């Protein structure tokens, strides 16, 4: 099933989506709640449901303002180097263990919300990524069992402030500026996609300008292998987010570099899941409540 967490008139709900139409699952089943956590905890709530079988009126997806699929994920773990050509364009050696880093919740925002270029840098870059939402947690998860721990897949744009990323061997500053990591808006359950979400076109663009274009089959660490590897060192919990790295074509590797500029709208798309779009704004143009003015 294709799902969307969002709100109309400020009231958050979970919607089932088909094409450009949506139905309010939360209204049908109040136990679903306002984000995906109740469905993650009780997957039986989705069992046997189909869009056409859901009662209630259809509304246009465009009427819904997206929210984060999981309002308060426990962990946000990201792979930094997972496509060979992206590793080469960044000047790194091909690793034999995934480059892992973490993001804070403050660095995330839902699709459609502004991606903020900070006042201290003009080097805001884009990175389209496949992201998975952990359904069933665990530790020391075997690779052959790992896909059973996935609730669904979404799209992530890992906005990166490159000069701050390069200030230290640890990438934390450049990957954690407020409102630089766009998530969503759609989450698709594994039964709707190829196993492990492989073979999907993954692309970023601004208008007609294609910035990145590749396939998720090019990932060095598969979804299953990544889950297994991460679970060696930490207990994964339901609702954790794992971003699977970006393909080649990022702005800092282009000649001259191609940074995101205020006024642009960047789109990150994964085939079969959807488009995560973000208008780019300058931090100085935000009001005191963090909204675009």
From TrEMBL:
It holds the Pfam family FAA_hydrolase. Residues 75-281 form the Fumarylacetoacetase-like C-terminal domain. Keywords: Metal-binding. InterPro entries: FAH, Fumarylacetoacetase-like_C, Fumarylacetoacetase_C_sf. It comes from the Bacteria. GO terms for biological process: small molecule metabolic process. Coiled coil: none annotated. GO terms for molecular function: catalytic activity; metal ion binding. PANTHER family: FUMARYLACETOACETATE HYDROLASE DOMAIN-CONTAINING PROTEIN 2A (PTHR42796:SF4), FUMARYLACETOACETATE HYDROLASE DOMAIN-CONTAINING PROTEIN 2A-RELATED (PTHR42796). Belongs to the FAH family. This is 5-oxopent-3-ene-1,2,5-tricarboxylate decarboxylase.
């Amino acid at each position: 099933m294709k799902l969307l967490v969002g709100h109309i008139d400020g009231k958050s709900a979970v919607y089932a989506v088909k094409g450009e139409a949506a139905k309010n699952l939360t209204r049908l089943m109040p136990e679903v709640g306002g984000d995906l956590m109740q469905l993650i905890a009780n997957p039986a709530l989705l069992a046997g449901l189909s869009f056409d079988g859901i009662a209630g009126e259809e509304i246009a997806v465009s009427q819904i303002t997206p929210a984060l699929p999981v309002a308060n994920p426990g962990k946000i773990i990201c792979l930094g180097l997972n496509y060979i050509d992206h590793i080469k364009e960044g000047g790194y050696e091909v690793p034999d263990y995934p480059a892992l880093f973490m993001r804070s919740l403050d660095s995330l925002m839902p699709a459609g919300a502004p991606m903020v270029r900070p006042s201290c840098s003009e080097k805001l870059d884009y990175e389209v990524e496949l992201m998975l939402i952990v359904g069933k947690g665990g530790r020391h998860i075997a690779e052959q069992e790992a896909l059973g721990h996935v609730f669904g897949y979404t799209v992530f744009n890992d906005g990166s402030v490159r000069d701050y990323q390069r200030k230290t061997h640890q990438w934390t500053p450049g990957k954690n500026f407020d409102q630089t990591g766009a998530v969503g808006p759609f989450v698709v359950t594994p039964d709707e996609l190829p196993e492990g979400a492989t073979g999907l076109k993954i692309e970023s663009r601004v208008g007609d300008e294609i910035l990145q274009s590749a396939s998720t089959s090019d990932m060095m660490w598969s979804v299953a292998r990544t889950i297994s590897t991460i679970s060696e060192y930490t207990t994964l919990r339901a609702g954790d987010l794992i971003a699977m790295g970006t393909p080649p074509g990022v702005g800092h590797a282009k000649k001259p570099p191609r940074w995101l500029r205020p006024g642009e709208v960047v789109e990150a798309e994964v085939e079969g899941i959807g488009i995560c779009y973000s208008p780019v704004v300058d931090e100085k143009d935000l009001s005191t409540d963090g909204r675009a003015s």
